[in-house]
Amino acid sequence: MKPIRSLSDLAIRGAPPVFEEPLHVGRPNIGDREMFMRLAGEMFDRRWFSNNGPLVQEFERRLAERLGVRHCVAMCNGTIALEIAIRALGLEGEVIVPSWTFVATAHALYWQGITPVFADIDPQTHNLDPTAVRKMITPRTTGIIGVHVWGRAAPVEELQAVADEHGLKLMFDAAHAFGSTYRGATIGRFGSCEVLSFHATKAFNTFEGGAVVTDDDELAEKMRLMRNFGFHGYDNVIHPGTNGKMIEICAAMGLAGFDSHADTVAANRRNYAAYVSALDGIDGISVLKYDEYEQNSHHYVVMEVADEFPVSRDEIVAALHAENILARKYFWPGCHGMRPYRDLFPHARLMLPNTEKVSRRVVVLPNGPGLPNECIATVAAVCRVMKEGAA
Ligand code: T4K
Question: HSE (CB half, 13 Å, CA atoms) of 58?
Answer without folding.
Answer: 15
